[in-house]
Design goal:
Layout (H helix, E strand, L loop, with lengths): L4 H43 L37
Amino acid sequence: MKYTRAKLEELLWRQLSYIDELNEQVALMREQNTLLKLENENLRTRLGLVESAPKPYPKPKRKKVEVPVVLVNTEPTLNEPGQG
Protein backbone atom coordinates (compact mmCIF):
# COMPACT_ATOMS: atom_id res chain seq x y z
CA MET A 1 0.00 0.00 0.00
CA LYS A 2 1.49 3.33 -1.02
CA TYR A 3 1.03 6.47 1.02
CA THR A 4 1.25 10.00 -0.24
CA ARG A 5 3.27 12.57 1.65
CA ALA A 6 0.10 14.26 2.88
CA LYS A 7 -1.27 10.95 4.22
CA LEU A 8 2.01 10.17 5.99
CA GLU A 9 2.10 13.63 7.56
CA GLU A 10 -1.48 13.23 8.73
CA LEU A 11 -0.66 9.83 10.19
CA LEU A 12 2.41 11.17 12.01
CA TRP A 13 0.52 14.16 13.44
CA ARG A 14 -2.24 11.86 14.65
CA GLN A 15 0.30 9.58 16.35
CA LEU A 16 2.00 12.61 17.90
CA SER A 17 -1.32 13.83 19.31
CA TYR A 18 -1.96 10.34 20.77
CA ILE A 19 1.46 10.35 22.39
CA ASP A 20 0.83 13.79 23.87
CA GLU A 21 -2.50 12.62 25.30
CA LEU A 22 -0.83 9.55 26.81
CA ASN A 23 1.85 11.74 28.40
CA GLU A 24 -0.85 13.90 29.97
CA GLN A 25 -2.58 10.80 31.34
CA VAL A 26 0.70 9.48 32.76
CA ALA A 27 1.37 12.83 34.44
CA LEU A 28 -2.11 12.79 35.99
CA MET A 29 -1.65 9.23 37.22
CA ARG A 30 1.70 10.14 38.80
CA GLU A 31 0.09 13.07 40.58
CA GLN A 32 -2.74 10.85 41.81
CA ASN A 33 -0.21 8.29 42.98
CA THR A 34 1.68 10.84 45.07
CA LEU A 35 -1.60 12.11 46.56
CA LEU A 36 -2.64 8.55 47.43
CA LYS A 37 0.72 7.88 49.08
CA LEU A 38 0.39 11.01 51.19
CA GLU A 39 -3.16 10.10 52.19
CA ASN A 40 -2.07 6.58 53.11
CA GLU A 41 0.67 7.99 55.33
CA ASN A 42 -1.84 10.30 57.01
CA LEU A 43 -4.22 7.41 57.66
CA ARG A 44 -1.42 5.26 59.07
CA THR A 45 -0.37 8.00 61.47
CA ARG A 46 -3.99 8.54 62.57
CA LEU A 47 -4.47 4.84 63.20
CA GLY A 48 -1.12 4.43 64.89
CA LEU A 49 0.13 1.98 62.32
CA VAL A 50 3.42 3.75 61.74
CA GLU A 51 6.07 1.09 61.41
CA SER A 52 9.77 1.38 61.39
CA ALA A 53 11.84 -0.35 58.76
CA PRO A 54 10.35 -3.67 57.69
CA LYS A 55 11.69 -6.67 59.53
CA PRO A 56 13.59 -9.08 57.32
CA TYR A 57 12.59 -12.71 57.24
CA PRO A 58 14.93 -14.94 59.26
CA LYS A 59 17.21 -16.94 57.04
CA PRO A 60 17.18 -20.66 57.71
CA LYS A 61 20.52 -22.00 58.78
CA ARG A 62 21.86 -24.84 56.72
CA LYS A 63 23.14 -27.96 58.35
CA LYS A 64 26.67 -28.90 57.51
CA VAL A 65 26.74 -32.36 56.00
CA GLU A 66 30.00 -34.20 55.73
CA VAL A 67 30.35 -35.96 52.40
CA PRO A 68 32.67 -38.97 52.45
CA VAL A 69 35.50 -38.72 49.96
CA VAL A 70 35.93 -41.79 47.79
CA LEU A 71 39.27 -42.16 46.08
CA VAL A 72 39.17 -43.93 42.76
CA ASN A 73 42.24 -45.78 41.57
CA THR A 74 42.76 -44.95 37.91
CA GLU A 75 46.01 -46.90 37.48
CA PRO A 76 45.71 -50.06 35.37
CA THR A 77 45.98 -53.32 37.21
CA LEU A 78 47.35 -56.64 35.99
CA ASN A 79 43.92 -58.30 36.16
CA GLU A 80 42.34 -56.08 33.44
CA PRO A 81 41.73 -57.77 30.09
CA GLY A 82 44.18 -56.77 27.42
CA GLN A 83 46.97 -56.32 29.91
CA GLY A 84 49.98 -58.69 29.89
